[in-house]
Amino acid sequence: xxxxxxxxxxxxxxxxxxxxxxxxxxxxxxxxxxxxxxxxxxxxxxxxxxxxxxxxxxxxxxxxxxxxxxxxxxxxxxxxxxxxxxxxxxxxxxxxxxxxxxxxxxxxxxxxxxxxxxxxxxxxxxxxxxxxxxxxxxxxxxxxxxxxxxxxxxxxxxxxxxxxxxxxxxxxxxxxxxxxxxxxxxxxxxxxxxxxxxxxxxxxxxxxxxxxxxxxxxxxxxxxxxxxxxxxxxxxxxxxxxxxxxxxxxxxxxxxxxxxxxxxxxxxxxxxxxxxxxxxxxxxxxxxxxxxxxxxxxxxxxxxxxxxxxxxxxxxxxxxxxxxxxxxxxxxxxxxxxxxxxxxxxxxxxxxxxxxxxxxxxxxxxxxxxxxxxxxxxxxxxxxxx
Length: 386
Description:
The protein is an alpha+beta fold. 32% of the residues lie in helices and 27% in strands. It folds into 3 domains: 4-91, Rossmann fold; 121-186, 2-Layer Sandwich (Dna Ligase, domain 1), CATH 3.30.1490; 192-385, ATP-grasp fold, B domain (D-amino Acid Aminotransferase, Chain A, domain 1). A hairpin with a 4-residue loop joins strand 14 (253-261) and strand 15. The radius of gyration is 20 Å and the shape is globular. The mean pLDDT is 95.
């Protein structure tokens, strides 16, 4: 059942997906807007195009004739995906789901208004003036973020009216695509944030990975750990909500569903129809990583019980601190790898900018605190030179 898969977006998550696909004999064409992207380095073929251009997308689809299109980023002309799906190409999970989840306003409307899932209070704004007006119904502090972005880009917390102008500017600068629209939402005083990796199969029950806890800065993930510590009642609530929204979206594949967890309740936050950055911890925690699970669901292959290798696992990012048009080199790898039960993955991105994710540290231990300490300590030993 060899398939030709076109991957739209070729970052570090895409790279791991390509590796998983090739291990099962699939052919992958990696696509992104710049040459030398991580997934291109391991794919069978690659293309450099503007994925927001419908004409450029159509040209490469006609050229390669993929059986499956796997979106990995938000900045895609989703109207074209609907066209390709109508012509018999399997768009993962579906063209409609891709469109809905690449726009925070669309997926939030589905979750809150159509499915009735509990979410923070929210509203939308298309100008700084409108943002100030709708903030009155949300209150302060509030979270402001573009409706289309990735990895937390453009997200900030406004503590008062005076900070809204800066939040508007920051959201617009961090937006992907060509829509100048933001979502403003109630700040939930949560005890933890989790990602629930939810696998929707072509035939077979929905499968859940153990919940993943994570910590963010600037709206972007810094570390994650598995399993997150939450009660069976709250986990059941999260799983029920995740199944409801993924059933609504349909298709097949792995979804990264994010939740805020308070002392006694669960709030739906966001959803990605693909492997999640916090899920990189699965590269060390278990037999089937999030990339293996995504691929198996897409191909309709059996997913047996997930086997967890360790009592606890953690990941910690390695970030760039400077702008560079050439790839940095990494010092301190030997010291980092001296730390017990620790691995390092360098993404080999061709350029750097402040806070760009350049690699990840993976660790395991007998408890979460120790696993997180191993990963954090190892990340601090790695220095980027330009």
